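re: ur question from yesterday

yeah so i grabbed the chain u mentioned. its 180 aa long if i counted rite. heres the sequnce exactly as i have it in my notes:
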Amino acid sequence: MHSFQILSVALDGHGGRVFAGCLDNTIRVYDLRGGDAESDVYEGHTDSVTGLSISASGATLLSNAMDHTVRVWDIQPFVHGGKRLVAALRGATHNFEKNLLRVCWSADEQFCSAGSADRYVCVWSMEEVLREKGVGAGTSPLLYRLPGHSGSVNDVCFHPTEPVIASASSDRTVFMGELS
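ran it thru and got these structure tokens back, copy pasting raw so excuse formatting
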């Protein structure tokens, strides 16, 4: 059992590991093959982790936190140089409402997206992220900042085969938009 609240969860494609986004700013990894033992802790966020999403390939994890960053983590069993943090992206904000804002991958892993408290949907190109290695950068390779909602964007989801993204908001609406 963990000593802080768990705000988000993701299960890897093989069902062997559970990733838990926690109130203590960490991501805790539990290996189900060895019982429920905590096997790793990812540190880097400076506020509560509100959203997690594992890529279709199972190689990377997205996390959204109240520190106004979306982070990309390498979750493969063996990481070159031991560095799990791939990039820290800026653009998705949290505010006084403290909503649990979510993140997601596109099925082809070319894009990632996050909801934002400033009423926008944020979309990043992973090609640009990897090219610029956005760790600690003041600016991010934000590809789209999609408007339309009048409240916090709490969740986002890519269509599995089409260039379409859906977003859900505190304004009680769901929008769908096509990415060009």
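noticed a couple things. The chain has one domain: 6-178. also Helices lie at 126-132.
anyway ttyl
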